Amino acid sequence: MRGRLCSQLPMFLLLLQPWETQLQFAGPRCRTGPLDLVFVIDSSRSVRPFEFQTMRQFLVSLLRSLDVGPNATRVGVIQYSSQVQSVFPLGTFSRREDMERAIRTLVPLAQGTMTGLAIQYAMNVAFSVAEGARPPEARVPRVAVIVTDGRPQDRVAEVAAQARARGIEIYAVGVQRADVASLRAMASPPLDEHVFLVESFDRIQEFGLQFQRRLCPQDLCNGVDHGCEFQCVSEGFSYRCLCPERWQLQADGKSCSRCQEGHVDLVLLVDGSKSVRPQNFELVKRFVNQIVDFLDVSPEGTRVGLVQFSSRVRTEFPLGRYGTAAEVKQAVLAVEYMERGTMTGLALRHMVEHSFSEAQGARPRALNVPRVGLVFTDGRSQDDVSVWAARAKEEGIVMYAVGVGKAVEDELREIASEPAELHVSYSPDFSTMTHLLENLKGSICPEEGISAGTELRNPCECESLVEFQGRTLGALESLSQNLAQLTARLEDVENQLATQK
Questions:
Q1: Contact (CB, 8 A) for 87 and 106
Q2: Cα 274 from Cα 262, distance rounded (Å)
Q3: Per DSSP, what are the bridge partners of residue 426?
Q4: CA gyration radius for the chain?
Q5: CA angle at 425 for the pair 422 and 427, rounded to the nearest 5°
Q6: How far, in Å, CA of 344 to CA of 312, rounded?
Q7: Using alpha carbons only, what angle is made at residue 57 by residues 56 and 62, rounded to the nearest 5 degrees?
Q8: CA of 270: how far to CAs of 355, 376, 386, 484, in Å?
């Protein structure tokens, strides 16, 4: 849930700009090679006029980044609501200007939302040779981009599976009110590369940039002095450095270090209340997996548990269930959104009483493994958090609070450990909360911090007792020497005073 001040003014200014100049994608024109690309556009009544205008601008700008031509990228556009209408088939236009002209005159149908019907039309008609698609034996990739803002009024899973079986690669782009489960049912695997969520139509260019990078592979690593310590990977018109497994990319974006100096039992409490909304809950899950990416997840290293809360509390998976980061991330993506209220205090109680128990996979206190709780919420709790927040800290759990949107600062501070500036993070918007990762990485996984240098040793072992005794005797000996030096200095001062008299 995000609140915008003066939200009407930016949209009004957007509409005042010449629409050919908006939503421009950076970089040279994409040389993809042969490609048959069909856009399947939702024009149901729920898409408001200015939103439909923005979608048309998005299509025009994306066209300008493609290498359009009979032997390169062929483009078709269909729109749908309760019926399906072909705006122009794949074989109609070979010039970008003609396509843009047809898109400018596009009038929305403004009826229901029959997405399954649109997919069936794309499969049987839009990608047919008669409509301009190249024959299957030509092995030209077929790509469908479905843009929708709501829940389908018909079934999509079966027809989408048929389309994928026929070799059509499907990207599902959900805007604002889109149903996440339907997007996942439509899209091709892997879902994290084919399902896109944007909060509003004026942010749809974010998908355009990512889609452009997918279509335009360039090996920049061979042409620039990248400086990557381990591996360079080209991504569209840019590149990034990669680190080996269980190593972390540093702030310079080039060097790597390991985020496993110590061991942590980490429990994540995720707000699944109705105010979060389904599309934002998917963003939260991706955010959680980005946290997992910089942890050394293993039975001997960092253990991760996940709890979702709304009006009730549900352990999605305990600390002891998964032994690898891949298993944790897969389990996170499978979590189903609860909705309902926001009982953060109840969630904290559950964490204290159950999540950090040995029965749930937490390591015994004798092993001295730090216990960390991270609470993620987007609003004010409907119950009291103070009692169980204090209890968590009394139990030795280091608490972090991450707030988004209408989260209350005083409540976040009450949940978090001291100092608050190191344990409280806030983002006004779900789509921009990734900037919090650096702060969390520096806190949960510091080079010198709560988890650094933790040894899994039994403090009652003979070797540990001898080591403790040695350190204690050494400290006492040092203190004794310091006292002797201080006494000698005091005697010198007294002698000097006596001589002056």
A1: yes
A2: 37
A3: 403
A4: 29
A5: 155
A6: 9
A7: 100
A8: 13, 5, 18, 57
Burial of 215 (0-12, 13-18, 19+ CB in 10 A): buried
What confidence tens digit (pLDDT) does each residue in 378-427 have? 889 999 999 999 999 999 999 999 988 888 888 999 999 998 888 888 88
**Cis peptide leading into residue 459 (ω within 30°):** no
Beta strands (DSSP E) in 108-246 are 142-148, 168-175, 195-198, 231-235, 238-242
The C-alpha atoms of residue 385 and residue 412 are separated, in whole angstroms, by 10
CA atoms lying within 13 Å on the CB side of residue 495 = 6
Phi, psi of 192 (to 5 degrees): -70, -10
Q: Could you tell me the end-to-end alpha-carbon distance of the chain, in angstroms, rounded to an integer?
A: 80
What type of residue is 111? Q
Q: How many CA atoms lie within 13 A of 60 on its CB side?
A: 22
By three-state DSSP, how is residue 330 classified?
A: helix
Paired tokens of 325: 């980061």
Contact present, 331 and 372 (Cβ < 8 Å): no
Only one residue has tokens 């803002």, namely 149
Preceding omega of 364 cis (within 30 degrees of 0) = no
Distance from C-alpha of 296 to C-alpha of 369, rounded to nearest angstrom: 14
Token pair, residue 85, equals: 């209408």
Where would I find the beta strands (DSSP E) of 378-429? 397-404, 424-427
Give the number of other Cβ atoms within 10 Å of residue 77's Cβ: 26
Length of the chain: 501
pLDDT beneath 70, residues of the chain: 1-33, 199-220, 222-224, 234-238, 244-248, 251, 257-262, 431-435, 437-487, 489-490, 493-494, 497-501
The amino acid occupying position 150 is: G
Task: Enter the tokens of residue 491.
Answer: 């005697």
Which tokens in the block code for residue 94?
């070979």
450: left (phi over 0), alpha (psi -120 to 50) or beta: alpha
- Give yes or no for a contact between 42 and 113, defined as CB atoms under 8 angstroms apart: yes
